[in-house]
Structures are given as structure tokens and as C-alpha cells.
Recover the amino acids of this structure.
């Protein structure tokens, strides 16, 4: 059983002046215990909406979210089922999610208290444990959030989510707005925690280099849909969907070689008005007739990978879009 | 002769704790048609050193040293004259174009205003000029873009517009401060390619300020690494980023995941945090975070001196030590 299973989730928002915008148009992903899953895509692709649906912060219009086999109920006035505390969310900006006027130790003690996870007399010890778990000095309990650097504050936010003994944490851009060194520390911490505590992590990030470095599996999202999923390194070596290929080719290399990243022409279309057929077709360098009319389904390929592209027929062995396009005669793919 | 020559630049800002040094004796030169990269963490003085050239520092700031731009001495120029020169021959784009574009004025108005002022063009000519400027930065449908407002564009398009405005008077030097930091990688690549093309086609010089060494590596010809208000290493892009010799440059690069490296290698974070201006450590300001530091580093300020193919402010060479 997967720790977290998001199945065919659709998320709609009310648009200004009536009408609805479909931010997530039927997307699926799973997170296994101890696994780090990266969710990548350009801004506006629906990755944050999917994350919110995954923890029950927004109500999906359709589809289901299962946490440890039980449905994740959307947040309402009623108390959430107790089991759901083991599904946690960490936001991008820890400064806005921590109370500036309370000491860090007190804030870390809230969850164990409210949930009766530890007896009162063990509370201070539990707070110390949490602080140690995220690699902060023991004195951190007596400080206020403003006394810490951005990276340390993000550790505090993670420590607080760990207070509930979670089995899955969804992290929405946890590394954005940190400098490289703090990013490196936090990325290493996430890997350690995931391995040590058998913790499933859903890591949403626009920083592809970091995702490549720490994620076990990656899902690539475009305009509300998954276009490719698979184990991280094979996906990076030979991306199968033209969009994944474009994203990866756009990442700069900090090595002094003067590698000029490839730019992807055009922009993410308005989700209120998605293109016909394959949603990526107006920007795709390999586009052919069928792409303009038919929406390609996400199909399983060799090596535990999936892709939603007419150039990648179900069960096909690994070959880049360019190789496939070269062997392609309109309407039929030569394998 | 270099287009821009900065010598002994020192900037002190007035704070509640008195004057605080944010740029502490910096030298560099920018050649015509080159992209000069300035890298460093936040608070390293890279932005302040550029704002001082344009006379944009906060009130009460004290600037020393000399800045020669063409035949002008920018630091000793009357303010009026600086505005004329800076407006026409120097231009700047910032990280977030939403804060530098006026939300209530059409793109056309913002693109023609300074063109008319600095180049003395009439309304018709200015509009034609604006159209060319937008076409130059590859804005689709430039004619209707002229009538649109900033909020109608995406982040990447807004940055293109900001660049078009900055380049409309055909400046010789563009200072770009974290121009791609707020953008997606796909859009970032487009802006980097645009800057690279403009530099080649228009003989434009660019000072690229960024904390992102990947961005730096893509288009910079030469690079200066700033730490705590000083340059610690400078040289060609290949020299500094492929074989870094200052422990700080090395540490910065070791903290970054490389898109083609093995996955199981943990990233190496730099110990501690960068010092804040006003409490810079003695001796080499990097010594408290440096894994190579010796006794002498605590007392002696290492000068920036030639070391083979580069300038280096460190008596210990990590390449040799290892």
C-alpha cells in the first residue's frame, strides 16, 4: 500500500467574473514510505494546487486522495480524523508560518500537547528531540523565529511538522528563497530524515537541479496534467516527453564551461483556455497532426516510466523524442 | 581602454549604529561587448557597488574611490550631469520587473518617455523606436504590447519589457541585478540567450549580478566573486568556475548540485552564515567559515593579487593543499 495515493484528481477554482479555471485536470501520483518524490513544472502548472489537494486543503472536484489507504477528507469546520495528523505540509516561507511572538520550543510543543502524543513531563524532552532531529543547537528552543536565518527557520518548520510523527510530508517549495549553502544543508537534511524515519516526501520545487539530486522519483506536470513520471536518474538521462526534455535542457550548469541553456519558446497557456489535443503541442518542437486534435493518455513504458506523448506508444523501450520523431511517419510510430 | 574602470571603491551606509562599510575597496574593469559577472551571497555588497555608480545609494551614504566610465568620472560628476549620462549610456534592470515598471502607465508610454527625453525624438519617431525596441527583445505582437499594461504580461515577458526599456536609448552598459532569479528555468534560459545575443549584436557590455553560479556560467566572460564587501577571486569564467582556487568560491560550487553529477554525493554546505555588514571578522573575513584557515588568516587581510591566470585573495591555495 502506498503511503499517499493521489488518483485522477481534478481541482477547479472559481474564476473572476464567474466561470471556472481547471488548475489540475486529472493528475495522479503516489508516494511510498521512505521515498522522495519530486513534482516539477513551470509556475502555473498546478503543482501547488495538487499539493493542497493531497493534504485536503482544497477539495478536489473529482478524483480521490488516499493516505495510508483511507480517504483524505477536505478541511472543514469539523475535526479532521486523527489519522490524518500523520500527513503534514510544510510551506515555502517559514517566517509566515511561525508565530513571531512565541519561543520556538513552545511552538514545537504545541502538536505533541494538542494530540496527547507525549505526557506533559516528557514534553520538554520531545522538543529537544525534535530540535536535534533537524540539526539545530539545543539552545534553539529558547529563541524567537526572528533570531534565526532563513534556513534555520525552515528547519524549525520541518521540526514542527515532525512533531506529529508523520509518515508523509508534502513540502511546497521548501528551498526557494534560501541561498545555495542553506539549500544544500536542507536538501541533505530531507534525505536523512526520509531514510531515518521511513518518511515519504512529496517535494514540490521549480529547482530541477535539487530535485534531481535528492528525489527517488519525479513527476513532471504541465498545465494541470502529468506528462511524464519515472525514476529520477533514467528520466534525467533520457527524458521521454518533449516537455521534460525542454525543462531539463533549460537548467544551467555551474561549471564554467559556458553551456548556454536551451530556451523553450512560448509560455504556459492560460489554464482557463487550454489548447486542443495535447496541451503542450503549441510549444512542442516535434508536433505533428494528431497532437493538435487528440489528447495523449499517460501510458506505461519500459523501466517503470510513464509518458503522455503520441511519440511514446504504450510499452515502448526508452528512446528520446528526437529519435522517435526521426523514425516517425505521420500517424504511425515505427518502433 | 576599458569601458568601465572601478578603483578602490568603498561604500559606507549610514545606519543607527553609525557608518557601516558594505563595499570595502573593490577594483574591476568592464570591457566593451563583454558580460562581466559579479557573484556572491546576499549582503556581499554586489548590488551596493553597482548602485553607487548610478548615484542611487540611500541618503547619507559615503562613497570613495574612482569610477571612470568612458570619459566620465561618475563619482565626481554633478548630479544633473550624472542623470543625463546614466540615463542614456548606462541602464539597469532589476530582479522584479513588477516593481520597476509603473503599473498604471502603458508599456508604450514607459518606453517612449525617456527616449524622447534623452534622444530628443518626436512622438512619431519615439513610437517607431519603441516598436523596434520591443521587437528586439522578441515580444510577440509588439504593436498591441505598446498599448498594454504591465499586469497583462507574464513574469518573463515583463522582464523582456524592462530590458527593452533599459536598452531603448542604446546604452553602452547594462547592469542586470538578478535578472532571472524570479523566473522559471525555461524563461530564464530565454532571457540569458537574449542578453547573450544583444551583447554580440549590439556591442553591449553587461554587468550581471547574481548569486546563481549556473546563470553566471552560462553567459559571463569574466567573473568576480564578492565576499563581505571585497573581491576574493576574479578571472575568466573558465578559470574561476572550472578550477576555483579561493576556498569560498570552492565552497559555493560544492554546495550546488550539478545536473550531470552522481546523485549519491551529498551536497557540501558552507559552515556558518555570511557576516552582516558592521560585524565583519578580522583578518580574512571568510576565516571563521573556512576549512583551510590558519592562524595568520585571523590577523592578516589577504590582498587580491595575481595568481597565475587570475586574481586571488588567499595565501592558501586549496588546489595545492589538497
Amino acid at each position: 500500500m502506498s503511503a499517499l495515493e493521489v488518483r485522477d484528481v481534478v481541482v477547479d477554482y472559481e474564476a473572476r467574473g464567474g466561470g471556472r479555471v481547471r488548475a489540475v485536470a486529472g493528475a495522479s501520483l503516489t508516494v511510498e514510505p521512505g521515498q522522495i518524490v519530486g513534482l516539477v513544472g513551470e509556475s502555473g502548472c498546478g503543482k501547488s494546487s495538487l499539493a493542497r489537494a493531497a493534504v485536503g486543503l482544497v477539495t478536489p472536484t473529482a478524483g480521490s486522495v488516499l493516505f495510508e489507504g483511507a480517504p483524505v477528507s477536505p478541511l472543514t469546520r469539523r475535526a479532521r480524523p486523527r489519522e490524518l495528523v500523520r500527513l503534514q505540509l510544510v510551506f515555502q516561507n517559514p517566517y509566515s508560518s511561525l508565530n513571531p511572538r512565541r519561543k520556538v520550543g513552545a511552538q514545537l510543543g504545541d502538536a505533541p500537547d494538542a494530540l496527547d502524543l507525549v505526557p506533559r513531563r516528557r514534553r520538554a524532552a520531545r522538543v529537544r528531540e525534535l530540535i536535534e532531529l533537524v540539526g539545530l543547537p539545543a539552545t534553539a528552543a529558547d529563541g524567537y523565529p526572528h533570531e534565526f536565518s532563513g534556513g534555520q527557520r525552515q528547519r524549525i518548520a520541518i521540526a514542527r511538522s515532525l512533531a506529529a510523527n508523520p509518515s508523509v510530508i508534502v513540502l511546497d517549495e521548501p528551498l526557494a528563497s534560501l541561498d545555495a549553502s542553506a539549500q544544500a544543508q536542507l536538501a541533505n537534511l530531507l534525505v536523512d530524515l526520509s531514510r531515518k524515519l521511513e518518511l515519504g516526501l512529496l517535494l514540490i520545487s521549480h529547482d530541477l537541479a535539487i530535485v534531481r539530486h535528492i528525489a527517488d522519483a519525479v513527476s513532471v506536470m504541465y498545465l494541470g496534467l502529468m506528462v511524464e513520471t519515472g525514476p529520477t536518474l533514467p528520466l534525467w538521462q533520457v527524458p521521454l516527453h518533449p516537455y521534460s526534455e525542454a525543462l531539463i535542457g533549460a537548467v544551467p550548469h555551474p561549471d564554467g564551461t559556458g553551456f548556454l541553456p536551451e530556451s523553450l519558446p512560448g509560455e504556459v497557456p492560460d489554464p482557463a483556455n487550454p489548447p486542443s489535443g495535447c496541451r503542450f503541442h503549441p510549444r512542442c518542437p516535434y508536433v505533428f497532426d494528431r497532437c493538435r486534435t487528440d489528447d495523449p493518455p499517460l501510458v506505461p513504458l519500459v523501466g517503470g516510466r510513464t509518458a503522455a506523448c503520441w511519440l511514446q506508444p504504450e510499452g515502448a523501450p526508452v528512446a528520446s523524442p528526437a529519435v522517435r520523431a526521426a523514425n516517425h511517419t505521420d500517424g504511425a510510430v515505427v518502433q | 581602454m576599458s569601458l568601465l574602470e572601478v578603483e578602490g571603491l568603498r561604500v559606507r551606509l549610514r545606519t543607527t549604529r553609525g557608518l557601516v562599510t558594505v563595499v570595502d575597496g573593490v577594483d574591476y574593469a568592464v570591457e566593451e561587448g563583454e558580460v562581466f559577472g559579479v557573484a556572491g551571497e546576499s549582503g556581499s555588497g554586489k548590488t551596493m557597488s553597482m548602485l553607487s555608480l548610478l548615484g542611487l545609494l540611500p541618503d547619507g551614504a559615503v562613497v570613495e574611490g574612482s569610477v571612470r566610465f568612458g570619459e566620465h568620472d561618475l563619482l565626481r560628476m554633478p548630479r544633473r550631469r550624472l542623470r543625463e549620462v546614466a540615463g542614456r549610456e548606462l541602464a539597469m534592470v532589476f530582479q522584479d520587473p513588477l516593481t520597476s515598471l509603473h503599473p498604471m502607465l502603458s508599456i508604450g508610454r514607459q518606453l517612449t518617455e525617456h527616449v524622447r527625453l534623452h534622444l530628443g525624438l518626436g512622438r512619431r519617431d519615439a513610437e517607431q523606436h519603441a516598436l523596434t525596441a520591443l521587437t528586439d527583445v522578441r515580444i510577440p505582437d509588439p504593436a498591441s504590447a505598446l498599448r498594454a499594461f504591465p499586469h497583462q504580461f507574464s513574469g518573463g515577458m515583463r522582464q523582456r519589457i524592462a530590458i527593452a526599456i533599459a536598452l531603448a536609448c542604446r546604452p553602452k552598459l547594462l547592469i542586470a541585478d538578478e535578472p532571472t532569479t524570479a523566473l522559471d528555468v525555461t524563461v530564464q534560459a530565454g532571457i540569458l540567450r537574449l542578453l547573450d545575443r544583444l551583447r554580440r549584436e549590439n556591442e553591449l557590455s553587461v554587468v550581471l549580478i547574481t548569486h546563481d553560479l549556473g546563470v553566471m556560467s552560462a553567459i559571463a566572460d569574466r567573473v568576480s566573486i564578492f565576499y563581505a564587501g571585497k573581491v576574493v577571486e576574479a578571472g575568466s569564467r573558465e578559470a574561476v568556475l572550472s578550477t576555483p582556487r579561493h576556498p569560498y568560491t570552492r565552497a559555493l560550487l560544492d554546495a550546488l548540485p550539478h545536473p550531470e553529477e552522481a546523485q549519491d554525493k551529498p551536497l557540501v554546505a558552507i559552515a556558518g552564515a555570511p557576516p552582516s555588514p558592521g560585524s565583519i571578522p578580522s583578518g580574512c573575513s571568510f576565516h571563521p567559515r573556512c576549512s583551510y584557515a590558519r592562524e595568520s588568516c585571523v590577523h592578516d587581510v589577504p590582498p587580491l593579487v595575481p595568481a597565475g591566470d587570475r586574481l586571488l585573495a588567499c595565501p592558501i591555495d586549496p588546489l595545492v593543499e589538497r
Summary: Chain A touches chain B at residues 42-43, 149, 179-185, 187-188, 191, 206, 208-210, 212-214, 232-233, 236, 246-265, 267-268 (CB under 8 Å). Chain A has three domains: 1-75+165-237, 100-157, 240-267+275-333.
